[in-house]
Design goal:
With 979 residues, chain A is of the alpha+beta class. Chain A has seven domains: 152 residues, 2Fe-2S iron-sulphur cluster binding domain, sarcosine oxidase, alpha subunit, N-terminal domain (Ubiquitin-like (UB roll)), CATH 3.10.20; 203 residues, FAD/NAD(P)-binding domain; 118 residues, FAD/NAD(P)-binding domain, CATH 3.50.50; 99 residues, BFD-like [2Fe-2S]-binding domain (Arc Repressor Mutant, subunit A); 147 residues, 2-Layer Sandwich (Gyrase A, domain 2), CATH 3.30.1360.120; 89 residues, Aminomethyltransferase beta-barrel domains (Alpha-Beta Plaits, 2-Layer Sandwich), CATH 3.30.70; 98 residues, Aminomethyltransferase beta-barrel domains (Elongation Factor Tu (Ef-tu), domain 3). Chain A is elongated, with a radius of gyration of 38 Å. Chain B is mostly beta strands and 83 residues long. Chain B has a single domain, classed as Folate-binding fold (2-Layer Sandwich). In chain B, 13% of the residues lie in helices and 40% in strands. Chain B is built from two helices and six strands, in the order E-E-E-H-E-E-E-H. Chain B has a four-stranded antiparallel beta sheet with strand order 3-4-5-6. A two-stranded antiparallel ribbon of chain B has the order 1-2. In chain B, strand 5 and strand 6 form a beta hairpin. Chain B starts with a strand and ends with a helix. The chains are: A alpha+beta (979), B mainly beta (83). At the A-B interface, helix 17 of A face helix 1 and helix 2 of B.
Chain lengths: 979, 83
Amino acid sequence: MSRLDEGGLIDRTQGLAFTFDGKVMRGFKGDTLASALLANDVQLVGRSFKYHRPRGILTAGSEEPNALVTLRTGARAEPNSRATTVELFDGLEANSQNRWPNLACDLMAVNQLASPLFVAGFYYKTFMWPAKFWEKVYEPLIRRAAGLGALSRLPDPDSYDRGHAFCDLLIVGAGAAGLSAALGAGRAGLRVILVDEDQRLGGRLLAERHEIDGEPGHLWADAAASELEVMDNVRIMRRTTLFGIYDGREYGAIERISDHLAEPRPGRPRQRLWKIFAQQTFLATGAIERPIVFGGNDRPGVMLASAVSSYLNRYAVAPGKRPVVFTSTDSGWKTAEDLVAAGVTLAAVVESRPLQKVPAEQLRATGVEIFTGAVVTDVVGRRLRGVDIRCADGSRRRVSADLLAVSGGWNPAIGLGSNLGARPEWSDQLHTFLLKAPPPGVTMVGAANGHLGLGAAVLDGMQAAARLGGLLFKPPRTSDDRTDSAPLWHVGAHKKKAFVDFQHDVTDSDVDLAAREGFTSVEHLKRYTTLGMATDQGKTGQLNGHALLAAATGKTMEQAGTILSRPPYLPVAIGAFAGHHRDAHFRPVRRTAGHGWAVEQNATFVDAGQWKRAQWFARPGERDWLETVNREVTQTRSSVGICDVSTLGKIDVLGKDAGLLLDRLYINSFSTLAVGKARYGVMLREDGFVMDDGATTRFAEDRFFVTTTTVNATKVMQHIDFARQVLWPDLDVQATSVTEQWSTYAVAGPFSRALIQKVFADIDLSNEALPFMAAIETLWNGAAARIYRLSFSGELAYEVSVAATRGDSLVRALFAAGAEYEVTPYGTEALGVMRIEKGHAAGNELNGQTTAGDLGMARMMSKKKDFIGRVMAQRPALIAPDRPALVGLRPVNDGDRLRAGAHLLAPGADAIAANDQGYVTSAAYSPTLGHSIGLALLERGPERHGERIVVHDPVRGADVFAVVCDPVFVDPEGVRVRA
Amino acid sequence: MRIPCPFCGDRDSHEFVYRGDAEPRRPNDDTGFYDYVYLRSNVAGPMQEHWYHAQGCRNWLVVTRDTCTHEIAGAVLAREAAR
């Protein structure tokens, strides 16, 4: 065990058992998986993406590129979890990834032998030829050989919540700067939200031995947290990662509510996705330490110095027994001191700067070997056994070691700030990029703002808050915090592979190669080498790559630049974005008032937009849906049927100018419609194509009732609002959707009048009183009702409406009244068959590509008034005589079946697009006629009635001969509807 | 993104339906319809756009949005802008 005997912020009273690759291990509450693995002397944690090189733990935070594991098993298994941020819990199961057969002996590591093939841009080079090999051979090969963890392919058993929050000040990161800003702002009464990805507030204060006001920094953080906790105006969100900055000062955050538990508590979500709207935001996101590029820098046992400090100080784990520190920063010396303080035998400190006086002179007294002006060129061993040092005088030394702590400098964590496109700027003082012009409402604070020292960070946080009205307070005394550094991107000559991007296996020679091949911008470098494109987005290594590119191309860092970061900052589960909108809740379901009745009548439902509509009502003994539908059609045409048509869009249009507005919306006139009458109307889009159709009824001079097709209800409402608000704002007219206010039932068939009469005994339903296309307002059981004499089926028919609250009662009353006529409920299929038999255009014909002329309604277009689409509908191509227009089709042989979507060809013509004359839009078996029928759009169709044509359906069957005919198959004179 | 609806106040952009450039005006005579229906300028910078508060007050708005920064400068009722 590498656990130190004392110290750390772990709870030694709470031991936890977990497994890694099936092996049982123990840790403590407060551990991360990474610290617990290190405490159990596990150095090898994963295999790399491309070369399957053994990898260990590089960092102690969310920037980790190497230590990716699959957490949990079964449906909850989550691949690519960063061991460095996974909170340990009892029973945790973790498994290594991308290895076969196991982690220690990964046969796929042979990829390394083929590494000349895997250089930058290898997939553009090695696998180029022959092209047909790509899909079948190369891609599967690469996918098998390279990769990370795999998904379980099981449905996610957890739930995800969604939250919205608003604040004056959002503070991202609860380290020294974030806490100090929160204290200032919170004490002044600002509405503050403080988010931190950790379970515990404090940031680096938890990982370092700095003191504030003479006490350990983590105690100051605890005190600050306690004070903030009780402020009503401050909300602290722990275990919450801000993953993106969006337009309009909106921020996306993911709160991990249950990830530190084996599984969510009953009724609790796993995670909650937050949309936070903040007037002002502080990115107190700290800084991320840089590795250095040298030979074998990816070997297990090479770790960032800051991570070594974290494991020592926060988790009381010594990641090695004989460490060497390799640094170009003052903070690296802090780690050296931490190691000595923890009682670890420090083998050597290698400082790249040629310093006369090192930042920790007192270390010399401990006998530690100190090399200044020196670098580590290579590590020895597949697992670290030692390091090769090139000394200031050029001599070589090999020092044995099992841990190498590396500090190459600090990159302020500015990634989030560049989400909206703000350009990072190079700082010569800090040797890194800063975000000097963050997006509106965003302020960089603390180390993220380049104030790397503790005292400076605390002060910056407080002052930033004060600029927004926060209270100033006496800055606490902080222990000495040296932050000098010199840039050291690369050590020069080395023997072994030296990595720039650990997760994607990009080496220094890949960067050189890219530069030689002309990929000299950082953006091209990224795409060509995949540098920074892994799940860690290059948080640790990317800048080294850009520095190497700058060196290779003779540019300064300022000229080379760096890339912007895109959301999400960390991978976010798709389930979190979906939230509750999954499975049955993916979209809302709308049920009509008569749904329950339809269920009782054994309805099979179909989705029409969000609506559930009854498709047919099967009866015992019916073999298939066709038999059911045929029976519904026949029974309706011979007797009477009832169909729920409540889903049709319904819009009240009211006001003095209501008729005028409708005249401008429809191709035909409504201002001339008599009160108590209904009229069929067609509306166009402004480009001249048909948009929608439906019947409109006038109930008073200034009161119209418009119906739309089910699917276009929303679109037409919008369109009407646009017309009356934007196009003609001076018209005195109001419109409102009443789709859900009315339940409407079509009652169709020869006995429909008799049936309605039984329910509305007092109403005169005679042809004289209520002729075809008339409507009346009346009462049913004392409440408002309407009876329209409309027919979609072509039979004598009525539509009866009551308030939706009474819809269920009405349909039951109608159905009961119809018993003596053997009434049948009918669904959308029978409705469709009857409308095709009547040649009525519907959704298949109103497909956005047809004109009124195409549908045989050219003469409906008024010449006396302006209407939307009038001018554009007259464009030559839209009135060309050879446009496909609506016809009916019947098969030459009664047994042949016509199918919608089939194309029409002249007999003998080759089945090629050039010979295409049109297509079948709707088709059905007509039980009335005893054969299949179709509606089609055919070139010059109306002139070609009686002609034979080939209905070509290469997908579903052979060609069928059909005869072109009038689209109205049943009762073309319209005798029945007027009966 | 949030849109300052003159009727409802600041609301989430998810409540709105986007239509597009508010600049073209429907011609009063038969000429100019092609431009009205099809021609749009590709504005880089502040642009007047039609948004519909579908899940709110159902007002059409003219929203001024910078296409480069997505910054929304303000919104007025389209009914009033049209007059």
